[in-house]
Write the structure tokens for this entry.
Amino acid sequence: MLRTFELYNGPLNELDSSKKLINTLNAHSFNTLKKDNFFREALQASDMLLPDGISVVLAMRLLKGIKLRKIAGADLFHYEMKRLNNINGKCFFLGSTEHNLKLITERAKKEYPGLQVYSYSPPFKPTFNEEDSKAMIDAVNNVEPDVLFVGMTAPKQEKWSYQHFQYLKAGHICCIGAVFDFYAGTIKRAPEWMIYSGLEWLYRLLSEPRRMWKRYLIGNSLFVIEILKEKFISSKTDKVTIKKESTEIPSSSSVN
């Protein structure tokens, strides 16, 4: 199943400013989409799907022989913020708490003085009703930001953005989840040497073991099993099917 996803494998500075739905794919989201068809549909509809996690990078190398560069949601976020700062653009943060959004806004105004920052904190619910979604869409459309950052945890943020994509007046719509907490400073991100060594998952596990142990110990194990099944069992099935098809010789009939 993973090999059916088209993951972005270029530099972020090749992005144009046209409207795009940008999502990330990691082991946790892959495990989730196997049980959530709408989430899978949302990710497959992405204009750009970033390989966010060393596990996905290694899995795609095993399955398709493609060498990908890990591009995390945080990488996308910092790229967009610098880009918008240079053009005096507008960004909008949709999600998180009022407290976090205040911290984000204060930091962004110091680090990116040329950038206009807006935000909206939606109600904390498992799902949003029509009235909730209208209020969120109106808040965004009153600004018409160049970039809309959505941080409502996966898979809610991806499904909501996909479902309401056509109604949102924004350029890049980026679902970046935990980046809101990283930038607000309420959750500390791994040091750079761990990030570039592919060990960010270990840092998050050690930092929040009670919350993250299922995702990284059980979830990563399930991901590895699925990838091995896709590589060896699916490939073997495909070969058998091709062999059977090749032995079927169509009957010929003479003409005249």
